[in-house]
Amino acid sequence: MLDLPDFAKLDEVEHADLRVAVGYADAPHTKVNQTLVFPTEFIPLSREYPIFFRKDQNGKFYAVVLLGLDRNENLFLDGDRWTARYVPAVIERGPFALAIEGGDQPGGTAEAVIHVDMDDPRVGAGHGERVFLPHGGRAPYLEAAGKVLNRIHVGAGLVDDFFDRLSALDLIEPLTLQASLGEDLQYTVPDIFTISRENMAGLSGDQLRELNQIGLLEHCFAIMASIDNFSKLVDLKAMQKKG
Questions:
Q1: Please, are residues 169 and 117 in contact by the beta-carbon 8 Å criterion?
Q2: 60, 71, 112, 119: least buried by Cβ within 10 Å?
Q3: First and final CA of the chain: distance in angstroms?
Q4: 145 burial level (CB within 10 Å; 0-12, 13-18, 19+)
Q5: Closest by CA position to 165, among listed 195, 198, 192, 197
Q6: What are phi and psi of 64, to 5 degrees?
Q7: Each residue of 187-218: pLDDT tens digit?
Q8: How far apart are CA 243 and CA 215, in angstroms?
Q9: Is this prediction's pTM over 0.85?
Q10: What angle is formed at CA 47 by the lines to CA 172 and CA 218, rounded to 5 degrees?
């Protein structure tokens, strides 16, 4: 599912003694004001962050959560600690990623294989968590990472259908968020989209039933409810500003 030019296939023999430092301070891609998210995590995300949609250069929608208001700002990162109860999966996965192998040959069976970024500063730390048990087998740390990777893998497979259905029902609308932290500090979050409450309310019973049957209705409600978390983000920024 991912292009992994800097990743090595995780091997129980070659990486038998590999350890990974746990924490977020030295993790790549955490000092950002937004991060990619997937439908498989919309429910827990909606309790902590505002969820929005953006468009890529090809016009395809994808979902993000907002983590900060300034560039490279993550208001949920406090030193090595993540202050929210749920960490987005692309960050929680640590230095690992999945690659699908073996399905490109006739009769071949596709298999999801875990890879590790050997250039990640957390990898190889002597004080970190073991990736494999001393006598073989995955350590609890890797088992947990595997579950997060699966959440990403399954979620990535749902994205196109999710947005296709939202678009077919005309449920996506543009949104501009604004916040003020005093006369000299104004913020605008442009080029984002959300689910239209008005159009959602106008869906027929059959349309709502179909969304519910395929498991997308709860995602829609979670996204709409998550917008209230923008005020929480503004409050965090105000607290930071006060010092």
A1: no
A2: 71
A3: 42
A4: buried
A5: 195
A6: -135, 160
A7: 999 999 999 999 999 999 999 999 999 989 99
A8: 43
A9: yes
A10: 50
